[in-house]
Amino acid sequence: MQTDAKTRNEVVLFIDQQKFTLEDREYTPRELLELAGEDPGETTLVRRHGNELIKLTDLDQKIRIENGTHFVVFHNGPTPVS
């Protein structure tokens, strides 16, 4: 019984293929970017939903994360050319 309660209170998500296990609650894109070690001022969190990419541009809007949700990080500004 104890493990069931623990599982229910956690959610697994992926940011740029890195796995995170977090408390099951609402998070802001700002919190998730910081968790992934990204600067919210220079990056945008994007939710992958099937083949669709949804930019989360309001850094302080709380979102509910479903177990197994995948995110990618877009870097704002020009891409360096080598």
Describe this structure in words.
This protein has helices spanning 2-8, 29-35; strands at 10-15, 18-23, 26-27, 43-49, 52-56, 63-64, 69-75. It has 82 residues and is of the alpha+beta class. It has one domain (10-75): Ubiquitin-like (UB roll), CATH 3.10.20.90. The strands form two sheets. A five-stranded mixed sheet has the order 2-1-7-4-5. It has a two-stranded antiparallel sheet with strand order 3-6. Strand 4 (43-49) and strand 5 (52-56) form a beta hairpin. 10% of the residues are buried. The model is unreliable at 1-5 (pLDDT under 50).
Give me some keywords for this one.
single chain; 82 residues; five-stranded mixed beta sheet; two-stranded antiparallel sheet; 7 strands
